[in-house]
Amino acid sequence: MLQNLILKFIEVKKHNPNHVNELLDLLQSEYVRGLISFTEYREIYRELHELGAVKPM
Q1: CA-CA distance, 50 to 32, in Å (whole number)?
Q2: What does the domain layout of the chain look like in residue ranges?
Q3: How far apart are CA 36 and CA 19, in angstroms?
Q4: pLDDT tens-digit readout, 8-47
Q5: 56: pLDDT confidence band, cut at 50, 70 and 90?
Q6: DSSP reduced 3-state for 27
Q7: Given a cut of 70, is residue 5 above it in pLDDT?
Q8: Rounded Cα distance, 36 and 17, in Å
Q9: Residues ≥6 apart with Cβ < 8 Å to 2
Q10: Are 24 and 53 in contact (CB under 8 A)?
Q11: Residue 43 and residue 1: Cα distance in Å, rounded?
């Protein structure tokens, strides 16, 4: 699932993500827009968090 998010990021942004927080931003956007389920969101969020992603305060 994380690999699919990375591919989506590259497709949309036209470059590789520089930090996992960029992937988190895309993940949250996809979830809010209803493009992924809560279960998918939670699973990918957990992976990103383990890689060091943090939500901005």
Answers
A1: 22
A2: 2-50
A3: 21
A4: 999 999 999 999 999 999 999 999 999 999 999 999 999 9
A5: confident
A6: helix
A7: yes
A8: 20
A9: 23, 44, 47, 48
A10: yes
A11: 8
